Amino acid sequence: METRSRYLLIFSSLILFVVYFFPLWWISLEAPQYPEGIKMYIWVNQITGESENTIQNINILNHYIGMQYIEPDSIPELTYFPWVIAALIGTGLLVALLNNSKMALVWVSLLTILSILGLYDFYMWEYNYGHNLDPKAPIQVEGQAYQPPFLGTKWLLNFKATSWPHLGGLALFLSVIFGNLLWFTELRKKKA
Amino acid sequence: MKKVYQWFLAIIATSALITACGDGDSKSKKSTASNFNDAASKVYVAPGEHDEFYAFMSGGFSGQLTVYGLPSGRLFRRIPVFSQDGEKGYGYSEESKPLLETSYGFVPWDDSHHPELSQTDGTPDGRWIFINGNNTPRIARIDLTTFETVEILEIPNSGGNHSSPFITENSEYLVAGTRFSVPIPQKDVSIEDYKNSFQGSLTFVSVEKESGDMDIAFQILVPGFDYDLAHSGKGPSHGWTFFTCYNTEQANTMLEAEASQNDKDFIAAVNWKKAEEYIAAGNFTEMPADYRDNSVDHSTQIATSKKMTSVRVLNPAECPGLIYYLPTPKSPHGVDVDPTGEYIVGAGKLSADLTVHSFSNMMKAIDAKDFEKEIDGIPVLKYESVVAGVVKQPGLGPLHTEFDGQGNAYTSFFISSEVVKWKVGTWEVLDRIPTYYSIGHLMIPGGDSKNPWGKYLVALNKITKDRYLPTGPELAHSAQLIDISGEKMQMLLDFPTDGEPHYAQGIAADVVAPNSVKIFRLEDNKHPRAVKSESEARVVREADGVHVYMSSIRSHFAPDNIEGIKQGETVWFHVTNLEQDWDTPHGFAVMGANNAELLIMPGATRTLKWVANKVGVYPFYCTDFCSALHQEMQGYMRVSPASANVPLTATLGGRSFDTQ
């Protein structure tokens, strides 16, 4: 395995530590009567808000339109995702230590697939929250779904919802990018 | 005939002209709108912008305290203090009722005169504001993180708590002097025996540094004059408090004439550090007294009324050096100490001049024993030895003085209805501006402290007449905002006030605003009848009635259907607002309640007592528009005959709550 590849592999593994210290994603809701805005952070292991009461306050808003309550305790991903990341870091470093090119490429593939699955999972949670509405909801607008945007800004009734990756999400993105550079460094080596 | 006709025309023309001039005259007396082009921009606070200062104005006979913004003159809040307020359930909810307890029982009204901000190093620090109750002597403390009354201390051995609270420079003490002397202790005595049997008292109330808790530290018994106003010293004069007194004639009837005879009355200078020494040395009498100390527990928000039974009393005759009298012309009203602490302005309200005493002169006179005479063991200093200067004929009826921190003083003149600006030290009059009408107190933010914010002055006028659209015989009192940042004072704004604002205090908004609480944390709510979630809601029949442990959150009460109440029973609604978002109070009102509504802030619990007088079904609902489904926030309670067998139930939607 190329020295350059080993560095890439080590970087790609270590940068994943960032997700334990910063959220993966943030979603903000803006409306005139919320001058300070409502901000929600999605972490690898929890969902938090700008204040300790943000989730309760979002849930109170959501109950008018019949969205499910956001209950972090009932989202299993928040329990096992930290372990998935830990496993990726551990195996990544191990492969770098073993200096095995084939295993490295397998690791990169795994990292990429898991990341895409993670994003898809996140998208599906958003889809479910936005579409799975209580038929007895007090406010029902025909044809209106409340799925927050995946990236960017979207109007949900009176709220302007914005969603972007946070530092944790960026770290994950960088990990995937740098990891996939291995394909170039390692395959070029093979050709040579 | 033609001549007569011409004469007739001439007379009509002349009288028309005179009328027109007269009209013009009366308009030019007041400022017309055209003078105010630049004033308008000075008071304009754009939508969404904040004012630069808070102004706290006493409510006078409303018993409350109002909060305004300056320079806009916008009213933000009316804080209930001494009077019940149905809007907030203040004095009606079980939690707040004990605040209004006194040794005379429940007293749900008072006459509040002088707000006073807490100070650190002679500067308003924005922690608390205190205000006196004049009628049934009391002092209240308002917490400026919540803008709520959190303590009311009754002052025993007092009548008319007017010269109060006037704080010392590090909030060591508040003071309370008797405007109306009374027999101390109270007894059945002929009013004619005033001179022998009536006394005044000067009370010093300590303020605990961290909690703000007030206690009566000591009282000084003084001759039976009327102790009118006060201010505490600062800088070099820190350690002293000055009280004006009138009625040194000691009249007990027809005071308007009888109490205006002496050429000079007094300012009493009290050395409270000396008083502390006498107390420490045990040189006091423990006197039985009956008064109440009512305070709100921070974690439960429940007020309790504590019965107090004695006070420590100092007798000036046995405590040399404790008090001196400074002769001051003609029934002095306000006594104001300049920011340097050197000058003490005595406003002899029936005098043509304004007298200013010097603190350093006073100290020299005390050292030299420059005494004119003694009254009941209190030395009277020689006027010539203490006076620093006289502002000659500045106006009529001087009442109060505040300072701008630039060496200028501003005195209100009730009779000539004006504010006069004069120079401290040279005593020359610099400027004057009329007020509409008959100004009492005036206020510059921090204007009685070491560090005034000398930008605006508020004139608090006693008479309003034609200043606003008429509202029948009863009119709002009027405040006027004056720009004092330039050499000439400039009138900026009129605005109506609530009750009668006697004194006011102002403070830079950025000292107070950042500490303002948005919600009460539900987790920190230690109210014994609180519910922390809907699942804790329940109904319990106890010896004193049925206790409903209810929660409110957008947009329902839990429970919202209650059955099984028996006629004649008392129902106690303990409502906890589970909200934890900014500006989400819920109200609670029940048909036929003999008290008021509850207005419950996020995270707080309040209790309403309701008696089931009649059989029937009673709606209850949220009174404070809380959400899009506020109108749906309602419920029912069923009252059955005492003999009926309706079981006690409490439900919400399909859920049942515990009942016992």
Give an account of the 3D structure.
The complex is a heterodimer of chains A (192) and B (660). Chain A is of the alpha+beta class and 192 residues long. Chain A has one domain (3-191). Helices cover 53% and strands 14% of the residues of chain A. Chain A contains 5 helices and 5 strands; from the N terminus they run H-E-E-E-H-H-H-E-E-H. In chain A, strands 3-2-1-5-4 form a 5-stranded antiparallel beta sheet. In chain A, helix 1 runs antiparallel to helix 3 (77-98) and helix 4 runs antiparallel to helix 5 (167-191). Chain A starts with a helix and ends with a helix. The model of chain A has no long low-confidence stretch (mean pLDDT 93). Chain B has 2 domains: 53-515, 7 Propeller (Methylamine Dehydrogenase, Chain H), CATH 2.130.10.10; 530-659, Cupredoxins -  blue copper proteins (Immunoglobulin-like, Sandwich). Chain B is 10% helix and 44% strand. In chain B, 50% of the residues are buried. Chain B has 8 helices and 48 strands. The interface between A and B is small, with 10 and 11 residues.
Question: How would you describe this structure in keywords?
Answer:
heterodimer; A: 192 residues; alpha+beta; 5 strands; 53% helix; B: 660 residues; mainly beta; Methylamine Dehydrogenase, Chain H; Immunoglobulin-like; 2 domains; 48 strands
